[in-house]
Every structure is written in C-alpha cells, then in structure tokens.
C-alpha cells in the first residue's frame, strides 16, 4: 500500500501531458492487479486470517444465491437444502467468497442464462471413502453447486484448481478464482472436487467439517440491521457495486455509486447534503480511496466515511483513519459486519 500511496501522490503532482504520466498509470494498474492476485493467492495458499465459528451453511447459501440471483436475472436459482443440517466450522466471509466464486464460474459458463442448483446434506467420512481423498473421521456437511452450462472436457477438469489456469481469453480473468476456492476449503479442513462433461454442465462438491457446537440463535434476524439515509458506495469492481447496492437497499438505505475516486468526488460534490456515509474502496483506478477521502473532506469537513480493503488495517488504512476517517472493514466482509459498521458510524454522530 505504500507503493500505491506514493504513486497516487506522484500522479497528483504531475501534468497528464508529461511523458512519465502514462508510465505511472501503468505502474498503478499493475499495483491493482497485484493486490487482486495477492488476495486470491492467500486463499489458495491457505494463509488467510480465518475467524472460525459454528455457522449455518443453509443460511449462507440462501443469502449468497439470493444476492447473485438479483444480479443475473437470466439465471434461475434452485435450492434443495437439508433440514436439521449440521453447523459447519468455518469463517463466514471466506465461505461467502467460495460461494461467490462458484457463482461467478457458473455465470461465465452460462452467458445466455440457465439453471444454478444448490444442495446441502449431512454426511460422514464413510460416505466419502469412494472419493479420491482420505478424509478424517467425523461428520461433514456436503454442499453441491451445479450449473447447466457448457461443461468442461477431461483435460480442463484435471487442471481446474491450478493457480493461473483459465479458459478465458487473455486479459479476462486471473485463473485464481477456483484455485482460491480449493485453498480456502482445504484451509478449513474440508475437501472439494468437480464433475463435468462437455455440453452437460458442471457440479462442484464441497465437504466441510461439521461443528459440535450450535450456531448463534436468530442468525437470520441478526445478520443485518435496518437503517436509513443515503450511502455513496465507491468500488471499481462492477459485481461489488451491483451486489453492494442491492444489499444496502435491502437494509433500508438509498444508494449512490461511483467506480473510482474521481467519480466519487463529483458525485459527493453534487450530493454532499444528502449523503450520510461514503463506503470507500482503497485501491481503485484514476484515484485511490485515500486521496478521494481527502478531497471529499475538503468539500465537507464533517464527511463520514468507511474504508474497505482486502488489505489489513495496517499501513495506509491506519494513516487515513488518523486523518479522520470513521472506520475500516476488511474484504471479504459479511453482510452483518457491513451493516454493523455502518450503524456504528451513523449512530455516533
């Protein structure tokens, strides 16, 4: 983040006509790409920071598939969720990331639409003995995600979890989405495999260890707190803007969006009296979150802002918080965590 901050400062001080301006923009672009790769690699290498607790897998599937379904209306969502499902021992944000990556994979496989089926069931290691791995004894939750897309040939299936392997055109994807799925599930002591046939769709099977502890009661009602007011959501990732807007509106907020720091400043300048909070991604094209926050603070010294980043709170995030920013939330975050953070900030002033 120190490199990103210094490049942003240099871009602010240099004339766009200068021969070095384009070079700096290219460096900035590579920093953003590296940040994205780092996030996925941490998942693949199982080095992410997990907050493991008993979770309701059915609830996670319902929430994620509902949100995804609202962004891809041409895809029909089906759910066959087991009653009395064992709780799973997992990090909520990481499992949501797994589900989103599988949804994104299915979306790519069905550009013209199709069916996406989620199933859950209780199982044990004995039911897994016919698989390729050697599971630890115990109870598991099996989650299957099936699409009716183009399917994959045998060679692709054999490499699908390899980092950097992708069937997309150059420049359209890193090849780390499914690799991070593999890493996250392995990091939870679980197992994942895939079954596919060209022209017949794809099924991913995920086994996660069951927890002997009960999940927190009233999870469904506690996941988000209803609010009111206007939120400016700033992020350069289209899917985050689409889903974030839908979720925030569900929470009761009016939502404005911007795709980078410069656009955020213009939206804020025009709507400063109406905007109650800015949710601001730190690493974006044209202008990062830190610089955008400083510019918006010049427009309104009482601005309330929540930083969002895949990086930790250390480094540049801490510096921005010391300059008056109201809070920080690390990606990937849960719906409940976002709701609580927003509520804390809006209620303290």
List the helices and strands and how they pair.
Blueprint: H1 2-13, H2 21-44, E1 52-55, H3 57-71, E2 75-80, E3 88-91, H4 92-109, E4 114-124, E5 139-147, H5 154-159, H6 177-187, E6 191-196, E7 202-209, H7 219-222, E8 230-234, H8 238-251, E9 254-258, H9 261-271, E10 277-281, H10 289-299, E11 305-309, H11 316-322, E12 327-330, H12 335-347
Q: How does this model look, in words?
A:
- The longest helix has 24 residues.
- The protein has 349 residues and is an alpha/beta fold.
- The radius of gyration is 21 Å and the shape is globular.
- Helix content is 42%, strand content 21%.
- It starts with a helix and ends with a helix.
- The protein folds into three domains: 43 residues; 158 residues, Histidine kinase-like ATPase, C-terminal domain (Heat Shock Protein 90, 2-Layer Sandwich), CATH 3.30.565; 124 residues, Rossmann fold, CATH 3.40.50.2300.
- Strands 2-4-5-7-6 form a five-stranded mixed sheet, covered by helices on one side. A five-stranded parallel sheet has the order 9-8-10-11-12, with helices on both faces.
- It has twelve helices and twelve strands.
- Helix 1 packs antiparallel against helix 2, helix 2 runs parallel beside helix 6 and helix 3 crosses helix 4.
